[in-house]
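Listing S7. Sequence submitted for prediction.
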Amino acid sequence: KDFDLIFDESAGTSEPVNKTKKTIIYSKTKILPNDALYLEKSRILTSSAHPRVKDYYSLLRTQIQQRTDHGRKNTIMVTSTESNEGKTTTAINLAISIASQVHQTTLLVDMDLRDPDISYYLGLEGHLGLTDHFVDEIPLENVLVNPSIKNLVVLPAGKALSGSTEILSSPKMEQMVKELKHRYPDRYVIFDCPYILNNPDALVFSSYVDGV
């Protein structure tokens, strides 16, 4: 369990208490500060992002949510045809857009184990991640990070790994995805996966998720 949920009953005396407003208290997840200027330069959504850009990601978020409302479809894989097409930026900003909603939390997972980028874009470089969990058996809760973005938890890739297909196709990976899917009822899990051409990883991983 990477966070606890409590209901915030401190809305003040001038307005009625909102019983549905959730406050997340992270009990195990490491909380790291972020640099808003660095995020903006990396084209990551911040509070000062242009309204039109926010609208584009809100539209993408809404379309995905409409297609996943029924049957608990909450695991989404983001990929591209080739490299440098913007899949990681899209995955991060989609995760942030979903997390900006009152009743929603998001787990963003860097599944591009050959060439991980999420840590670079969010300023989390050097942090342990998924490969450390699988190779060195570091507990999953020890590699989760909250980058000081509300309702968002990140599972970095960790160190790059050339033989990633074997990990992605392992029963242990499939079981981990199932665990992440069912751990919290209000959470979307967004997986940033490798591009499809010249790389089998995304095709192997696609069978584990609800949508691509």
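Caption to Listing S7: primary sequence and predicted structure tokens for the chain studied. The longest helix spans residues 51-68. Residues 135 and 167 are 9 Å apart (CA to CA).
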